[in-house]
Amino acid sequence: MSTKSEIDRLGDRLRSEKLSEADLRELDNYRREFAPAYDHVIALLKNVAKIEPSGRPAKSTPAIVEKLRRQSIRLTQMQDIAGCRIVVSDVLEQD
Description:
Elements: H1 4-14, H2 21-32, H3 35-47, E1 54-56, H4 61-70, E2 83-85, H5 91-94
Antiparallel strand pairs: 1-2
Helix pairs in contact: 1-2
């Protein structure tokens, strides 16, 4: 696991035009750190709430790089690296 400052430096490097293989591997490792939390949330939604979520275990590498390039955000501030979506029929069910 990398430190927060190491991850943010990786984000700064990913903003550059030339992406190195080492940085792409490091980003892939960082993305994988979110898998246990994602799996836990998916299991709760399926087993406890009986809801079938959709989504992706981790934002794609090109999507992360593009977001870093178009926004002034640090990699550690990016809140949607992993996520899932649930579709419900109305606001009452949502709540």
